[in-house]
């Protein structure tokens, strides 16, 4: 069973003496304000000042060429910055400097060089680093997968008066997960949440980040490890929400563990949440993955009893499951129900039903369904035609199959490999070798298959035909 590793982060409050502090510069003290002799004049002056300030901020908005910095060399970076500052005119605009820093960090410099550039910017222009400045540097460290630099930057942020917030946490989690450092992402998430809890911060890690991490863990870790992380996050004040439970249920359904999905559904209800349509659809999909589509009807009925209205996905999932289970007659019943409730069947709906009919050998019924589909203005796709072609050729209806094949060819649709093999086998058994070669030519020309795969299937079918005549 998976287990999350121990903490990789020293206390965020620990200050590293080796790291120079980037303290925010205080604004210059303003002169004593004049008495309000004329309120209207002062109000107009204030509006004018505000307008001028807005225009100045627009003028200072960073409009820089991409890839301004060419190398991660700090000496060249400083020279590039000096040239950009001179071209722009002396400015302390934080967005301008953050844009330059972000451009430099795209070259993946190390932490000392990025901090050195920030110090150089402060000395040259007097610009004041803000939360965004530190988050840019933090993103760089995470992209480099340099955990020592990440810890150093977090300590620096706290010491400089910018403790990591929900944005910082989200940035860390997503970057580390993309580098397959899930354990480190979990520990940093918990440490930041703990630090914010102690300081009663107004911006602790949010549920978006938490659910992103839970979803990622469900893909890469055992469910026991995911549950352990959730319990640890709960102790830090982060309670699972409906999205969290949906992610968990989807994960266990994908692993075909419907018993655990049922248990989680009960836990969800105890937590005060009401399952929504998406969650019911997820459970129905789980039954379909286990080829137990007929049991999805139970979920559908419970959904209606709970007052949750089915949507198009609900009916498509139900019809798909029933058709795969060989209960296309019941699936047809739900097709009529969904139409009565105002849900127009789409290509997925009809293709699922055709697949079920063709499996039962009812290719004629599938053809009638194709006509109904087109009458309703629903456009068949390559999957629809492939499903129908396999049913027709397996049933030995070669003429009708070639007619449908001609429609597919006119639409320049690609053919599935399984469909191609079925058609060739049926044509060769019917001694219609010329037609088989024509299908082969189209499969190669439309790039439905590679030349080798298409030729191998044709050769196999021709060998079977030759052997049958001996």
UniProtKB/TrEMBL annotation:
Record GO terms (molecular function): mRNA binding
PANTHER family with a match to the protein in the record: PENTATRICOPEPTIDE REPEAT-CONTAINING PROTEIN-RELATED, TETRATRICOPEPTIDE REPEAT (TPR)-LIKE SUPERFAMILY PROTEIN-RELATED
Descriptive protein name: Pentacotripeptide-repeat region of PRORP domain-containing protein
Stretches forming PPR repeats: 130-164, 206-240, 241-275, 276-310, 311-345, 346-380, 381-415
UniProt keyword terms in alphabetical order: Repeat
Low complexity bias spans: 27-39, 48-59
Region called Disordered, residue ranges: 1-65
Matching Pfam families: PPR_2
Alphabetical list of InterPro entries matching this protein: PPR/CCM1_RNA-binding, PPR_rpt, TPR-like_helical_dom_sf
SUPFAM superfamilies: HCP-like
Keyword Ribosomal protein: no
